[in-house]
Design brief:
0% helix; mainly beta; 14-stranded antiparallel beta sheet
């Protein structure tokens, strides 16, 4: 997965006072801006919580209940929801189809695939692989099915729909709400890293197996601050612009003395147009013909 998709950070460090990093979605041409809100050190909770802006959703709230300003989401606010699958033909098992929304808001369809297990070679050199078919053959007794897309495989477990990726990371989503609830990642030195996410009306609590907890506080549906060890590590301010509530400042809370990251938006389309870091450096974004251009300047 790309780095903005990661929840467990492979090199956990304390967040520095920087605005973030910008990327361009090479498939759709969208602007992706990632601001790290929290990174923990150590092995108990080596995770990352980050704001992700995706210009594809510049006028949309990414969640109906928990809001971060239009166009913005948190990397942990991932969903997996079942959608209508194609009607099965006679004799074909009932197919299923899900839409997975990842950390950056990108969507991918994960559905039923049909395959046969084929073994080649003999003895110690025998290897078994799956050969996928585009249609189900009811006459073939060896035909099997799975829900996946080549990167993720879906299963069910005790009220969860579970995605397992090709690196062994496990994402468990509530079968009722579709929200991400548990993340498990294999780690060679400390076994399996585990993180749980619990949702209440004005609070999202992110914790590890030992009970260490990061609390995300909401007021009137909007994220206002993040607390860890009874300290505010990030705060968030919003303003109404072009009829929508937009994230305009991120003060660094207890980590800084008046340091903030500021955001401005295009008066025409409403997309993110500039980001200014605490040192006064500004990145400007232009959208001519939907192609992103980036300009830098010192205020």
């Amino acid at each position: 997965m790309a780095s903005e998709d990661r929840i467990f950070d492979e090199k956990p460090i304390r967040c520095r006072r920087c605005a973030g990093e910008v990327r361009k979605d090479m498939f759709k041409g969208n602007l992706l801006f990632i601001h790290d809100d929290f990174r923990s050190a150590g092995t108990k909770l080596p995770m990352k919580i980050a704001h992700v802006y995706n210009s594809e959703y510049f006028s949309e709230d990414t969640d109906e209940t928990y809001k971060f300003g239009v166009g913005w989401r948190l990397n942990i606010m991932q969903t997996l929801k079942e959608v209508s699958a194609p009607v099965a033909t006679e004799g074909e098992p009932r197919a299923k189809s899900f839409v997975y929304t990842d950390a950056a808001g990108r969507k991918r369809v994960i559905g039923t695939r049909y395959y046969k297990s084929v073994t080649t070679g003999t003895g110690d050199r025998a290897k078994t692989r799956k050969v996928y078919r585009s249609v189900y053959d009811e006459k073939d007794a060896d035909m099997r099915s799975e829900i996946g897309d080549g990167i993720y495989t879906l299963s069910t477990e005790n009220g969860y729909n579970v995605l397992t990726d090709d690196r062994g990371t496990v994402l468990k989503f509530s079968a009722v709400t579709g929200r991400l609830a548990v993340v498990e990642k294999p780690a060679c030195r400390v076994g399996t890293l585990r993180m749980t996410i619990k949702y209440t009306p004005n609070l999202i609590a992110v914790s590890d197996a030992d009970g260490r907890k990061v609390c995300l506080h909401f007021r009137c549906g909007y994220l206002t601050k993040i607390r860890f060890n009874n300290r505010v590590v990030r705060a968030y301010e919003y303003e109404r612009f072009l009829g929508r509530d937009r994230l305009v400042e991120i003060p660094f809370g207890a980590l800084g003395d008046g340091d903030t990251v500021a955001f401005d938006y295009d008066a025409g389309c409403g997309c993110l147009s500039s980001v200014t870091n605490p040192a006064g450096y500004t990145i400007n974004y232009k959208y001519p013909n939907k192609n992103i251009r980036v300009y830098y300047k010192k205020q």
